[in-house]
Amino acid sequence: MNKLILSAAVLALSAGLASAQTVRMGTEGAYPPYNFINDAGEVDGFERELGDELCARAELTCEWVTNDWDSIIPNLVSGNYDTIIAGMSITDERDEVIDFTQNYTPPAASAYVGLSADVDLSGVIAAQAATIQAGHVAETGATLLEFPTPDETIAAVRNGEADAVLADKDFLVPIVAESNGELTFVGDDVPLGGGIGMGVRESDAELKGKFDAAIQSMKDDGTLNAMIKKWFGEEALVF
């Protein structure tokens, strides 16, 4: 009987250790090419490929979870997943609530896009809610029009609801290219944020350390730069 109890205890401990190695990766699934849902209904994009590689290097098993952007930080803190890997720029304000790994993209430009190059950037500007771009628009004194998803910000420009949209330039480049001249970049690029990193709970220092080491190893061997160029083009900023 004691052997049975001991065996059961060992099995329970083994199961606990196995589950401890499973990390739930939280992403939005609506911000190509960083992350999106493909035709098979699966998370895809730069961050899916990156996240899978980081998990392999850190010897972790990853499960992918999607969450709306406006509640992505609260749901990390409350334990609905273990990381945020969703095109999230590292900022001091966010760092007060969660921790970040080192960045896995260099600080990149944001940009304005409108229907013509001479639109008034002090007018109505669309941005995704709770982003560094929304914060910047508010600081400029323009009228900020916030939307839950990035696609809605583009639609607001197309239907005349907003004069322009401010977003990550990497996100906007393919949209402008595929618009057949309907959309165009306006004004100068806007440098914002400290690059994009993975968000983790402040209590998960060990997990942060594992992903920091994995990111650094990809920087050191050149695979991260190659992956950035694959998804964002040869002209993309790299390390």
Automatic annotation (TrEMBL):
SMART domains recorded: PBPb (SM00062)
Superkingdom to which the source organism belongs: Bacteria
Q: Which residues form the signal peptide?
A: 1-20
**Which residues are in the Solute-binding protein family 3/N-terminal domain?**
22-235
For this UniProt record, the keywords arranged alphabetically read as follows:
Signal
Task: Write down what this protein is called.
Answer: Transporter substrate-binding domain-containing protein
Tell me which species this is from: Albidovulum litorale
